[in-house]
Amino acid sequence: MVDIQSASQMTSWMVSGRSLFLTIHVLGVLSFAYIVAKRMVPLVRGERDFRFDQPLVRLGRVLKFWLGQWKQPRYKVAGTLHILIFAGFIVLALRAFTTLIVGVSQNFVMPGLSGRAGPVYDTVTDYAATIVFLCMMIAVIRHLVFKPARYAVPARYGKAHTADAIFLLVLIAILMVADSLFAAAKAAAQSQPGHSVETLAAFSLPWMLQRALASASLPALGRFYFGAYLGHELTFYFLLCYRPFGIQFHVETSLFNIYFAKLDREILKPVRYGVSDQQLDQVKSFGVKTFKDFTWKHMLDFYSCADCGRCSDNCPANAVGRPLSPRFITIKARDYSFQHYPVFGHASIGRGNHGTPLIGSKAGGIYSEDEIWSCTTCGACEAECPLLVEYIDKIVDLRRGKIEDVNVPQSLQKPLKALESRGNPYGKMEKKKADWANTKEFQQICPVKTVGKSNGADTLYFVDSITSYDDRMQSIGRATARILDHVGENFGILGPAERDSGHEVRRFGEETLFMALRDHNVEAIRASGVQQIVTADPHAFNALKHDYKDVPPVEHISQVILREVKAGKIKFNPIANDKENGNSVYAYHDPCYLGRHNQIYEDPRDVLDAIPGLTRVEMARSRDRSFCCGGGGLMLFYEPKEDQRMGVKRVQMAAEAGANVIVTACPFCMVNIEDAIKVAGLEGKMTAIDLAELVDQQIVRKCRDLKEGQAAEGKECVVH
Amino acid sequence: MEILVCARRVPDTSENEIQLNSAGNDIERDELVYSINEADNYAVEEALQIVARVGGNVTVATVGGEDDEEILRREMAMGANHGVLISDDAFSGSDGKGIATILKGLVQKGQFDLILTGIQAEDGGAQVGGMLAALLDYPFASLVNSIEVVDGKKLKVSREIEGGNKEINEIDLPCVLSIQTGINEPRYVGMKGIRQVASLPIPSYGASDLGIDASAAGEAAAKVKRVDYFVPALGKGAEILHGSREENVDKVLELVTAKGGLK
Fold it and tell me: Which pTM value belongs to this model?
């Protein structure tokens, strides 16, 4: 029986194949281990991060987001390519190991593949290698010809990453070709006359190569076989050791990044994991000032980013030209990490040396101040990232560091000071907190009580600052109160005892002030004895639900409305599509803190759909891809550098969807969208209304809701 | 350089609704929130920036009572090294000259190269800085909007002249300067910072500690007395434009240009 020698038996330049490959294996594995160990250095020195709980939940997420590639299809072309490549890699992983071992031990067969499964697996891998090879070619063409905009690197962030991306793609393609050539040469040798024919999967890459080699002599095939094997070995180990230097490190880190990803995303990262609020006074430094202050998981995020650009593609701040691109928050930190914790040589940041401040134009700074204040914490980036990289916690941590270093944009100082002394950012008097409800006319229609010892209530309506004090938003407060009144809720407000929820105070990094506001509110809420809380402000909702502890359960008004619609307590008059009103087309804008941060997407839509005669369209960007209106709370006071307002882009999206009424469910959205309608020149063509206002307007009321004596009791009538 | 900043705690005009009390001789103070006088805050920031450049210490002092300690702590959280509360029953009811006399006692007790005050208190008459300089026989510059330390013995200070021009003056140390708002961008004081200085001791000095003749300050010594306090009646000032948007824009442009707002 004539056959080519196995790679391990071959001798080349006086060195036996076995020794050569054993040497390559040992060197390759040692190099990789060394590089990874060096890459672990900053992680080991980073801040604590508790990510070791709930292993089953985490494994479930690995199955969904890693093995299941859950987020990939959100981008159809790139996602499909990635799923194919990922699947190919998973399939080829076994073959790669087998191939590596064969170089040392010629008769090695992977356990489980010795029987019938072997040929089936071989066929599958032949195709897998082919598909991966084709995907690489398509990816290269995409990078060179189609150039998706999200891959571009704006000048201020450095040079384009195209060359590096293509280099890596080509290396993988070479690996696939080498792998296929190896199989093809072996098969070609075996298919010489007189041998049993090993069949390769038809039209696969190995199959084609086998045909090309069909007429080659046995010694030539032997050389091909050996060369392909050596090429495969070298490419494999080069890739393995090169990946930790760039974007393809995610091949190794993604599994861990997803396993350790934050489970409770809606809860903001504590100042320090494992440090209680009471112990915070002893914490010397808050937030992230230097690279060492990042937690190990946040550093793992930096390694894991695949540079796909989806975060920035969805970031509203990036879209309106603010100096923020989440992608480069990560890329710049990774470059910084690689520079200061090099694989060769000593780390320039040690135990005694904290390194340079990350923010500022001074030497070593990688982020600008405007960059970290530009984020509205809308969460669009995190909703998109296939690798579950976290951004909001990092931004907030960077802000915490700035706040502690007494460095805050001037425009935010007054509102922060007012929050400290008056409990609201406007510096308004506490005693005027309930003025929105205390007008004579309104008290007659819908008396709103301030809960106290002698004035108990089951439900607390938490109003929050903007709805209490802003003339326009007070209308949302009154609508909410009337809805609660209509469904017979025994409710009250805290009145002067209510302070700002502190939601944005916390997200702007002023943790200590937030804690003071929270503690005050928690005490007031608990003292009021209410059983549940309702709010119409998603920011307050999010704060009460996730930032506060030991308070009664909280609901957003849209949830209450839907429940009461289903229970039959709320019925709607049809929308008047008459000459005066024209034909209104409604589009619902998802507020970030109702939608993305709390997954309440359907309730407000179901409420709208329950209103007879209401025509509703969806904007192209909705639900978890909703486009932030410009941000709430303190963001209203921040003066960003931007080409355009986020709200203007948003109302244009509504116009493109064919809507002329934007319904939202957040007072801050209302501020931004109403302003944007004016700025966009759509006044008269587009209006905005809050869900509570719309419901209040369309609700079928019993006339006892009206002023006494105005109409007969029990008769249904409409109030405008 | 040893710098003393004289500061005051005043009702925060942006966070209060100032109303007259029923007697009509003062404002209703029950629900007021107070903060450091804005110009004084700029003076402290400027002092901190000078010390950051040339070294030294910043001391912040105020004449008042226990409640006034909060502004000293806030300025210490900003970075001031020391706070001094000057408090004595004999000082209550002092006029501008009385306050200047009290501060003179503190200056003479210490070794200060430079004394800063805000340009004026939000509820005051911009008297103290100038009087303090005169009582000490120190040179004085007011409306200062930039400071440059020349050689440790002199300063170059500038002030804005009506119309936007700048005048630069050289002044010998020790001296008194009254600081204009806008000279810098005061840093933010977070709640954590205030908590961290909450337990630092703040010395309190009375008349005898500073060697001040109690009869030179306080109500008895005051030669200026407030006799009335009132809110002026609203005048007719506003002109409402009733045209279309384009017409209104043209009209506004015309009016602003006529008043010299646009050139």
Answer: 0.90
